[in-house]
Amino acid sequence: MGLFMSLAFPFGRTPFRNKVIVVTGASAGVGRATAEAFARQGAFIGLIARDAESLADTKAELMRIGAPVAVHACDVADADAVFAAAAQFERELGPIDVWVNAAMVTVFSPITEMTPDEFRRVTEVTYLGFVHGTLAALKYMRARNDGTIVQVGSALAYRGIPLQSAYCAAKFAIRGFTQSLRSELEHDGSRVRVSMVQLPGINTPQFDWARAHVGRHPQPVPPVFEPEVPARAILRAAREGKAEYWVSRTVAELVLGTMIAPRLIAKYLAGTTVEGQMTPEPISPRRPDNLYAPVGRYHRTHGSFGKKAKRRAVTLNADHARFGVVAAGTVATLGLGFLLGRAAQRFVTERTQRSVR
Questions:
Q1: Three-state secondary structure call for residue 199
Q2: Which of 14, 139, 223, 302 is the residue whose CA sits 20 to 30 A from 186?
């Protein structure tokens, strides 16, 4: 630890200086961007992903920044391996302060063209992987009554769309699991915090290596954002520990629209998101995918849609956004009631005056 402390010292005073941060899915995309963002804050970083070579590359990248890094190559679908990773990081880096669950796999496909095994695999990684990571973190955090868990979610935790049924179901499941956990922690008076950060379409390698049963190359539903955008939101969630954050107005509009006008939103998505998730480029029948094994050459932070991707987005505290909508609706209702009341009063007055005349 003495060496690690001296390595982290140059970063100065930041909320995460010398804190231990664990990130799953850390070798690519949002996970890799998040690990780098914490590293630049002077944190000690524990990295989890399946591919040992890509983890070594990520470690070297973060150590060039000056961050102490430990790695553990494993599949988050393997609960015992995730618990072993947590134990390793506790030994090598120190007490885990923040655990970020970001590992995922998906299949772009109509439901009828997917196999039961494909549904099972997406569920094991994208949902149960989060459960395993959360349980591993809680083993240490509950004993110390301190720590923060951040679940990397999606707008699709609120609204399922075509071609991503398994992924949507997993994100719905994570949201329910996280809400249950938060309720239990509050009941126990625990100081352990758990947040969920709901993302829009992100320019990650996911669209280059996900299994696909469609005729054309998958793409994120626009508007698209660079991985550094959710990474900043994840740091905010780790710092503040509020229940939920929505990254971009697009996520807020989808979630609130689903709450207010679900049928209208469902009809719109049914008509736009099948074509909206595919480029004109035909997909190669020899395209490798990462459903069961890593695809090494795509382990990078950014995907293939950088020309379309935005670098900034507003991040909203979901509770504040919901309150704002309710407050605005209440004010509008009261205002309408007031206007109707005034109109009725004028009508009664005019009728009374005519009767007198």
A1: strand
A2: 14
| pLDDT tens for each residue of 222-232 | 999 999 999 99
- The answer to whether 171 and 200 have CB atoms below 8 angstroms apart is no
Q: Is 167 a catalytic residue?
A: yes
- Domain definitions of the chain by residue range: 2-313
- Cis-peptide into 223, omega within 30 deg: yes
Sequence-distant (≥ 6) Cβ neighbours of residue 22 within 8 angstroms: 45, 46, 47, 48, 85, 86, 89, 96, 98, 99, 100, 133, 137
Classified as helix, coil or strand, 151 is strand
pLDDT level of residue 3 (50, 70, 90 thresholds): very low
Of 293, 115, 308, 108, residue with least CA distance to 217: 108
Region 2-313: CATH code: 3.40.50.720
Residue tagged 């049914």 (tokens): 270
Which two tokens mark 354? 């005519």
| Distance (Å, whole) CA 85 – CA 81 | 6
Of 140, 167, 245, 298, which is the active-site residue? Answer: 167
Q: Say what the pLDDT of residue 90 is.
A: 98
